[in-house]
């Protein structure tokens, strides 16, 4: 199956596309909260040259578009046009006002914050955490303790959080305001910038960007020809971690992500979780994606995205019988959640198999197939374009 039939863009088509993207980048550059190094970028071949299609690549939560520049360059060098946008608000600083979030409405948040401020135990912890510049996030036992303490001072929180965690709970809008749909609407706006570009479009993403790639494809099945999602965050890994994120969001606790200089409110993670679990996992999205070749790549060394949720999602869209592909790096391969760039280290791990991952991404985008054996090899397949070393 050839899912990347070649097409030849004209000068006018390329110029129209560049103009649309450049206008978006210019608006971001003029924004007072502009985030250094987080601007979208594109790699387009010259007019008159055949291309295999255009790949939209979506970075992970709190990262920047250049997070996957090696993959972008490899695909570009082998016949694809590439566009790397920023996911919802990530081109801007100050996540508390610019990134997608889920927040308790003031009539519920203010009484809770008042109780927290009057609780000496919580105040001591929050002050200690806030003044520790190396603390990325509370540890597992700390999160467990915070959950217990919050429920002790405000038992109603349990009902409030249930409305957040349950599918289509009518009480969600009663308790919360949410901008989680920005992950989709902003991706759709970037997608529209490619209207003048002929040929197939493919979506690729890592973590939350993987969820964006899936959600965007589901919303535009008439144009997207394939999806590759690396460790897509469809649901936060671990029930206790997820419960902590949902409970702690209203307290303005901040954490560090892939950008060591940028703290974000926990409510931003709540929005990412809700986008994956409520939008991408919706019956409508599943039906749409069942007809779009989809390749999911996961790792057993996961610390962000729930593995079982992705496995269930793969079966819901039809699995291999419907032309989809799935690969899970075993724990002994020591592949971390951010698996795409070989220089990115997480949990003291980095992906030694990254070149084979790039090759199989290329194979899938061009044929709809993937060689699972090759994914577990450090040596590259000589029958595919070779990936340059670091």
Automatic annotation (TrEMBL):
InterPro entries: AB_hydrolase_fold (IPR029058), Carboxylesterase_BioH (IPR050228)
Transmembrane domains' residue ranges: none
Coiled-coil portions: none
Protein name, as recorded: Serine aminopeptidase S33 domain-containing protein
Lineage, top ranks: Bacteria, Bacillati, Cyanobacteriota, Cyanophyceae, Leptolyngbyales
